[in-house]
Specification:
The structure holds two protein chains of two kinds. In chain A, about 60% of the residues lie in helices and about 10% in strands. Chain A has three domains: about 140 residues, no CATH class; about 130 residues, no CATH class; about 130 residues, Histidine kinase-like ATPase, C-terminal domain (Heat Shock Protein 90, 2-Layer Sandwich), CATH 3.30.565.10. Chain A is built from 13 helices and seven strands. Chain A is an alpha/beta fold. Chain B is α/β, with parallel strands linked by helices. Helices cover about 55% and strands about 15% of the residues of chain B. Chain B contains ten helices and six strands. A six-stranded parallel sheet of chain B has the order 2-1-3-4-5-6, sandwiched between helices. In chain B, strand 3, helix 3 and strand 4 form a beta-alpha-beta unit. Chain B is globular, with a radius of gyration of 17 Å. Classes of the chains: A alpha/beta, B alpha/beta.
Chain lengths: ~425, ~220
């Protein structure tokens, strides 16, 4: 189910839950809409040309941000507290596949090497070892840890960094002191300065980066406290109000059940996002209608949906007819439960409203009874759909509504 | 009728108390142990060898999925019925695929729960309307679930029909009447859907790799 078209600039990122090495290939595949296999093969092939593929991969690795999968509040918290498991596992097939591609790539690389067209032999091995080292370290330090290491102002990481910085500055100084050779030593001085700058950056860098980081952290903290306020407001608006209502209605079991159910539905939608409305869709409309009917008539309306359709004029009419059918069932069936099932396959939308109640003889319904004739059958048929009503006294009732979807909805949402 | 021995696994003590009271009010169910997280669940189940485990989807230590995984590694043959408030399609389908024989929501009534326990214990599958909807979505590929892959075996037309009727709120015997088949046949179809859900080629491979700590 895709959300509404994003109006903001689309940014590539590396999906944290689907990465094999750095997540670059998976991220690019998502961004370009290409199969991840093709991207991986692309990187390997590019590597045959002076290692361009590997360098591109490393650069993208540093530049693309790591993206944790976005989950509804409840699921995210459940994941964090370890209440769920096994999210976003990478299949064995994918791993084998990638290893195979890598092996073939390495083989071709070696072949190039043998024929003497590759990188010079003395460079190849150190280069490969170096790249492997970088990949290993980056995977360990990925993003968060990396930033933390660069920002620490105490502990072993801090000591190591300071030591490295001091050594570099010293080396640079020694360079200059031992090589007083006028203009010929210009290059040496330049490189010495370079080394010194790197050293000084290693020493001072953390404070600079910390300053910048604190600004970001402060901004993030502000957002977080706003979110907390939103949570509090939400709990106040929903749960607290419901609890108050429950106490007031304590002697009316039907009302209590309805209130509890409405609150449950509301909280669940908020926590797990499974019932959030994807903009204007048939399912969203049906769920809203179900809540309204539940509240007005003190029955349970269970909505199950498979697929969904955008709410154009025809579908909106269907939704209104379904609502009418729910109301009918709630009013006349005399039972506490109505089942609604909606299925959209991209060509037709089909909705069933069913109760196990009193039932009636469809042939006996007077023509002037507006409920069924006008609001349900007529409404759906005007929009090109069909309605079948099955009922018999004592057997419950099922209203089946079917509506062809317009061509623009070909692809299921 | 023999008494069903049930282990109750849920991290909310209040909920456990409620369910235990409801189960013991009815006939034929004996709650032999309770557990509140993955470790205690595995311990209780291996110790008591119950007929059915009533398993919460979300709980400390990795959730119901982790309990299923560990017991499978121990070679246990216990039957599981998942129950949850979460209703996140991904987690529900995940736990079914890991071996649970059914899924019910926590607002299920006592008698219905006892009935469901009896049915899973007897080797049948228990599909609530909601689960039937998830399953249809999973097979249609309209659901975004990491654990569901493309190479699920297709449902037969009859299996789809049965799933749709269950999603429409039909009980098994109503499905049977509607399709002019016996309840036993309905159960066979549901079990077959469950098997297809649990045994796709990739799932098998993942399990194989998992067991050997390749992933």
């Amino acid at each position: 189910m895709s959300g509404p078209a994003a109006t903001t600039y689309r940014r590539a990122s590396r999906p944290a839950d689907r990465r094999l090495v750095g997540g670059v290939a998976a991220g690019l595949a998502d961004h370009l809409g290409a199969p991840v296999l093709a991207i991986r093969v692309g990187f390997v092939v590019a590597t045959w040309f002076n290692g361009a593929g590997i360098f591109a991969y490393l650069i993208l690795w540093r530049l693309l941000p790591l993206a944790e999968p976005e989950l509804p509040a409840g699921l995210e918290s459940a994941s964090r507290r370890g209440l769920r498991s096994g999210r976003g596992r990478i299949g064995a097939v994918e791993i084998l596949q990638t290893v195979a591609i890598g092996a073939i790539g390495a083989g071709v690389l070696l072949l190039l090497q043998v024929t003497g067209r590759g990188v010079s032999g003395s460079l190849l091995l150190p280069l490969l070892v170096g790249l492997l080292g970088i990949a290993l370290i980056w995977r360990q330090l990925d993003d968060v840890a990396w930033q933390r290491w660069m920002r620490q102002t105490s502990g072993w990481a801090f000591t190591a960094r300071i030591a490295a910085g001091v050594v570099m500055v010293l080396v640079a100084g020694l360079f200059v002191l031992t090589q007083e050779r006028g203009f010929t030593g210009f290059v040496d001085v330049a490189s010495a300065t370079g080394i010194a700058l790197v050293g000084i950056f290693l020493i001072l860098g953390p404070w600079i980066s910390k300053l910048l980081g604190d600004l970001t952290a402060e901004r993030r903290e502000r957002v977080r406290s706003q979110e907390r306020a939103d949570v509090a407001a939400h709990l106040h608006d929903s749960v607290l109000q419901t609890l108050a209502l429950l106490q007031k209605n304590a002697d009316d079991p039907a009302a209590v059940a309805t209130l509890a159910r409405r609150q449950e539905r509301d909280l669940r939608a908020w926590l797990y996002g499974d019932e959030d409305d994807h903009g204007d869709s048939l399912l969203a409309a049906l769920r809203t209608a179900a809540v309204e009917v539940e509240e007005a008539h003190h029955v349970t309306v269970e909505v199950v949906g498979v697929g969904d359709a955008a709410l154009d004029a025809d579908v909106a009419a269907l939704a209104r007819a379904v609502r009418e059918a729910m109301v009918n069932a709630a009013k006349h069936a005399g039972v506490g439960r109505v089942d609604v099932y909606a299925e959209c396959d991209g060509r037709t939308a089909e909705v069933f409203v069913r109760d196990r109640g009193a039932g009636f003889d469809p042939d006996q319904v007077a023509d002037d009874r507006l409920g069924i004739r006008g609001s349900i059958v007529g409404r759906v048929e005007r929009h090109g759909g069909t309605v079948t009503i099955r009922s018999a006294p004592g057997e419950g009732t099922e209203v089946r509504m079917q509506l062809p979807l317009s061509a623009s909805q070909e692809a299921p949402a | 009728m023999t008494t069903l021995r049930v282990v109750l696994v849920d991290d909310h003590a209040m909920f456990r108390t409620g369910v235990r009271a409801e189960l013991e009010r009815g006939e034929g169910v004996d709650v032999v142990a309770e557990a509140e997280d993955v470790d205690s669940a595995v311990k209780a189940i291996t110790e008591h060898r119950p007929d059915v485990v009533l398993l919460d989807v979300h709980m400390p230590g990795g959730g119901g999925l982790e309990v299923l995984r560990r017991l499978e590694q121990l070679g246990s043959e216990t039957t599981f019925l998942a129950l949850s408030v979460s209703d996140a399609a991904e987690d529900v389908i995940g736990i079914i695929r890991a071996g649970a024989r059914g899924y019910v929501t926590k607002n299920i009534s006592g008698p219905e729960l006892i009935d469901a326990l009896g049915r899973v214990a007897g080797g049948d599958a228990v599909f609530s309307p909601r689960l039937a909807g998830f399953v249809l979505d999973a097979f249609a590929g309209t659901i975004e679930i990491a654990q569901v892959d493309e190479d699920l075996d297709r449902l037969t037309e009859r299996e789809r029909e049965v799933m749709r009727l269950i999603a429409r709120g039909y009980a098994y015997k109503e499905v049977a009447k509607e399709l002019f088949i016996s309840i036993k046949t309905v159960e066979t179809h549901v079990s077959s859907v469950l098997r297809k859900l649990q045994l796709s080629s990739r799932h098998e491979l993942t399990r194989w790799a998992n067991d050997r700590r390749l992933i």
